[in-house]
Amino acid sequence: MSDSAAMASVFRSGLLDGQVALVTGGGTGIGFGIAELLAELGAHVVIASRKPAHLEAALAALTSRGHKASAVSLDVRDPERVTAVVREIATQYGRIDLLVNNAAGNFYAPSATLSPNAWRSVVEIDLFGTFYCSQAVYPIMAAQGGGRIVSTSMTLHYRGWPMMAHATAAKAGVDALTRTLSVEWAPQRIRVNAIAPGPIPTEGVRKAFMPPADSGIPDRFAAAEDRMAEYARTGIPLGRWGAPRDIANMVAFLASPAGDWITGAIFVVDGGEWLAKATT
Ligand code: NAP
Fold this sequence. Notes:
- By secondary structure, the protein is of the alpha/beta class.
- Helices cover 48% and strands 14% of the residues.
- The protein has 10 helices and 7 strands.
- Strands 3-2-1-4-5-6-7 form a 7-stranded parallel β-sheet, sandwiched between helices.
- The longest helix is centred in the middle third of the chain and has 29 residues, at 116-144.
- Mean pLDDT is 95; it is low at 1-5.
- Bound molecules: NADP nicotinamide-adenine-dinucleotide phosphate.
- The site of NADP nicotinamide-adenine-dinucleotide phosphate has 29 residues, from helix 2 and helix 7.
């Protein structure tokens, strides 16, 4: 059972019945956790990303539990493809109630030698992709009388984060976009918010805690688990790592009628991690 499936839903069943949600990067990690909860609550969820293996496995997991879900191949860096996919979804399912901009790329790299391609790639996925997808759903949401956009940000740009110039710059842009679009599109009743997750041990994050292959440590996986447990004790005030469901719960809240008067907000969901860092 996944971490997220282990955390029972606090929302009433059928809460999102009739809604259509598009989750970019919905095949893995946090995105899959979001897709899973939205589908459990009755939404038809469309997951979109590049790799067929991610999409196929996630779709099989969702549909095998009887959820309404579909998958579409999409690189969010390609604005024409984004527009075409969004139009196809609206034609096929009649509407798009929720867009979750979750797709992202990230890796540690020294800024002094970060290649133009590496810089461009992360900024294009995280920031341009968020803008392209938001712009593409705008006419559909405006025509249907409203909708919700939730983007996945981070907290690392609040203070800056060495070796992550590309991702921190991109996510700072996502925050700015969230605030700007929320005001610009409020007359169309499109609520635009973001969530800044703290550490959620998806594959990339686990790797960051893994000792290097030449470290001589016999069981690098066990060592990574130890380091992570230590970090939960010392670096996260609430004493545990996050789970995809922690983030999914906030998305479901924002997609529900409880999110009706919320726009332009950036919700930090991190067990207190960034504030604790800010004070040490
Ligand atoms: P992840 O598992 O690596 O998810 C990233 C997803 O984005 C993948 O499903 C990937 O699918 C998709 N993607 C990458 N490039 C894409 C592209 N060009 N077009 C479409 N989809 C693309 O990472 P995660 O940890 O769940 O992160 C999810 C979100 O949370 C990200 O926005 C991340 O910045 C944010 N976040 C995570 C943490 C954390 O601790 N995990 C903390 C703060 C913020 P394909 O490879 O199939 O394209």
